[in-house]
Structure formats: structure tokens, C-alpha cells
Automatic annotation (TrEMBL):
The protein's name in its UniProt record: Alkyl hydroperoxide reductase
Annotated InterPro entries: AhpC/TSA, Thioredoxin-like_sf, Thioredoxin_domain
Matches recorded under SUPFAM superfamilies: Thioredoxin-like
Sample GO molecular function, one term: oxidoreductase activity
Biological source species: Cochleicola gelatinilyticus
Domain of life: Bacteria
Domain Thioredoxin: from-to ranges: 2-160
Length: 169
């Protein structure tokens, strides 16, 4: 489990647009927001990422860079990008099981034909400019994710009040 105020694991991923993304090279005004999603097979992920896409400008206005990522293959991630309404959302693929575990994500095995053999459950990580964890939300199921609009309001509060990271004891 990654503790708030501690450095998060290094992360280098491939994006569906053919570029590479590296957490250490990010320079957000305030935070980097990582949204780990289950994959193409997940209708809850589809809705969640489509909602996130409608809020990208709001996150950007608050100095938050956003990335969605999964253990899906490049092919599956590109299908998600084509079939879901997420064309402006940076989308990474090919996260290894070891990387998912390093981030503290729960791992599931397929129970339906449409699911990959192994995939991670959702996780949200808000990372400070210095690479330390500010807060996280890790789920064991697709259903219990933070509301993205309310999360924006939380970021406003954090920035206005200089609210410290909690859960550090």
C-alpha cells in the first residue's frame, strides 16, 4: 500500500496514440491524476471514463494532468477509444500485473468470455508535483468509485485551504 506523502512507484506506459508517457517527466501545475480502469469489457469503466472526458477541461483548469490506464492490450485499448466517447482522454495500455500490484490494485480473473484472463480492478491516484501520493481510492469491484464532479470540488478545497495529505500515521 502506498502511503500518502511517500513517492509513488515509477511509471512508464505506452499511449494508444503511439507515444510514451512517463510519470517522472510530468510537470503539472498541481497534480497528476491516474485512473486505472478494468478494461474494454467493463461497462462501468466506459461510463466513468466518458464522464471523466467531459471534465478534462475542469481538471486542467485546476492544474491537474489526467491519464487513464489499464492492463488491456493495445488492440483492446484502441477499441475502447473507438467505441467509447473518450477521444480526448489520454489512454495508456499494457500495464503489467506486477505494476498493478505495485500500485496496490486488486487483481481479478475472468468470469466471462468477454473479460481478459487477468485484469486490475479500478484505482484513482492523485499525485503531487513532487511525485508523492496525495490521496488514492482503490476498489475491489467496478462499482465503488469516487464521483468525478465531487472530486473536482475536493481538489478546489485542497488548493484553497492548502489541506494536507491525510492517512500518514
Amino acid at each position: 500500500m502506498i502511503q500518502p506523502k511517500n513517492k509513488v512507484p515509477s511509471l512508464q506506459v505506452d499511449l494508444i496514440n503511439g507515444t510514451k508517457w512517463e510519470l517522472a517527466k510530468q510537470d503539472p501545475k498541481n497534480f497528476t491524476l491516474l485512473i486505472f480502469y478494468r478494461g474494454l469489457h467493463c461497462p462501468v469503466c466506459k461510463s466513468y471514463l466518458e464522464k471523466l472526458t467531459t471534465l478534462l477541461d475542469d481538471y486542467s483548469e485546476r492544474g491537474v494532468n489526467v491519464l487513464a490506464l489499464s492492463m488491456d492490450t493495445e488492440k483492446r485499448a484502441k477499441i475502447s477509444a473507438e467505441k467509447w466517447d473518450i477521444e480526448t482522454l489520454p489512454l495508456a495500455y499494457g500495464i503489467s500485473e506486477a505494476t498493478a500490484r505495485e500500485w496496490g490494485l486488486y487483481i481479478s480473473e475472468a468470469i466471462k468470455d468477454a473479460e481478459p484472463d487477468v485484469f486490475s480492478e479500478p484505482g484513482l491516484f492523485l499525485i503531487k508535483k513532487d511525485g508523492s501520493l496525495y490521496c488514492s481510492s482503490i476498489q475491489t469491484m467496478p462499482f465503488a468509485r469516487p464521483d468525478l464532479e465531487k472530486f473536482l470540488k475536493s481538489i478546489d478545497f485542497v488548493l484553497e485551504e492548502s489541506y494536507p495529505a491525510r492517512g500518514t500515521k
